[in-house]
C-alpha cells in the first residue's frame, strides 16, 4: 500500500509538521536527551532487522536490549562506506522493505566516493521539514516566503527525492507551494539568474560554487531585481572568500548549512553565525586518527547516527570524510542543541571554461554514480576531477578490485564517463579519463578535494 494513502502515515506526517520544525526552540537539553534516547532505541531495533547491521551487532556481542539510550552508543560497531557499498542492495535494508515505495539515492556528489542507500518517504519529508526549520531561523516561512532553490533535480539525487519525487508532491495535494521554485543546477548560470530575477525571491539557496557564479553575474549587471532577505548555501565548503564575494554582490548575509545524503540535514548556521546541529534528527560523534573521542574545540572525524527513517539505517557511520570541530553549546539565538564549528571536507573548485565563464562542479560530480546506476554496476570506488589547463580536464577513477570483472567492462565505463563529461563541458575542453590505484589527499588539509582546478579561481 502506498504510504501516502495510509491514514496512520498521514497522521504521522501531520504530527511531524506540528512538532518537528519548532522542537529545537521549544525543548531544553534534558528534554532533548530523553527524545534522543527514545529515537535511538527505536532505530537500533530497526537496524537489527537489516542483514548488514544484524551480523555486525552479533559479531560485537550486542543486542538491541542492551541499548537503553544514546549513552550506550559506544557499544555498537562502526559502519563504513565500504560496508554500505559491498552490501548494496539487499543487505542494507530489512527483508520486508518495499523498494517500490522507497528511494534509491546516490551520495557521490561531494565526497568522490560513490555509494547508494535507500530512503523511505518519511525520511524525505523530515528532510523537507529541516529545510523549513532553516528558513524559520533566517526569518522566513516555508509556506509563504518566496524561495528559489538551485539544486540537483536529476533522478537519483537526494534533492530529487525530496523536492520532485516524494515530500513536496505529497504536500502539494494539501497546500499550495508555488512560493518555492526549483531550478536545476546543471543549467547555465545566465539562464538561472534570469529565472531567479523573474521570480524575485526573498531567499535563495544553492551550493557555494553556484553562488560565486551568480554573484559574478550580479556584479556585471544581471539579475537587477534580485534583492533577497538572505541566502543559504550547502553541499560543499563555504570559504571566507566566497562568503564575502557573494554577500557583497547581493548586499545581504549568506548563511551556511551542513548536510549529507547519508545523514540528512545535520546542522545550520543561525543568525549569530553559530552552527547548530539538528540534534533531534542526528547524533554526531567526533574521533581523532587513533579512534579516540575528541574534546570540545578539537577537530575530529565526524561519525553520524541518524535517529529517524526507514530504508538504510545510518548508525555510527564513518563514511562522510569530513573533519568537524565540536564546541560547547552557548548561543542566545534560542536553539538548544549540540554545536559545531570549522567544517572541513567535501571541497570543490569551479571549472573555468575557455570563454572565461565557469561551470559548477556538481555538473560533473554526479556523472559516475549515474553511470553506475544505468549499467547496474557499482565498481567505481572513488573519483577525482582535475582541471590541469584551461582546455584540459582529467578524471581519475579508482576501481573496486572485488567487482572489476563483474558486469560491464571497466574500459566501457571509463569511455562512458568521458563521453558524458565531454557532453556536459563542451567541445572546447579535452576530457581524459584515467584509472588509478589511489587518489592523494590534499597536503594542506588531509582530505581529498573532489574537484581541483589549477586555473586561478579569483
Task: Please specify the SSE layout and strand pairing.
Blueprint: H1 7-19, H2 23-26, H3 29-47, H4 51-59, H5 81-87, E1 102-106, H6 108-111, E2 116-120, H7 121-137, E3 147-151, H8 158-163, H9 167-171, E4 180-184, H10 189-199, E5 203-206, H11 208-219, E6 230-233, H12 240-250, E7 254-260, E8 264-269, E9 275-277, E10 282-287, E11 300-306, E12 323-327, E13 339-344, E14 351-352, E15 358-359, H13 362-365, H14 367-375, E16 380-389, E17 392-399, H15 410-425, E18 430-435, E19 451-453
Helix pairs in contact: 10-11, 11-12, 14-15
Question: End-to-end span in angstroms?
Answer: 53 Å
What does the main sheet amount to? 11 strands, mixed
Strand content: 15-25%
Give the overall form: globular
Q: What percentage of residues falls in helices of 4 or more residues?
A: 25-40%
CATH-defined superfamily of the largest domain? ANL, N-terminal domain
What's the Cα radius of gyration? 21 Å
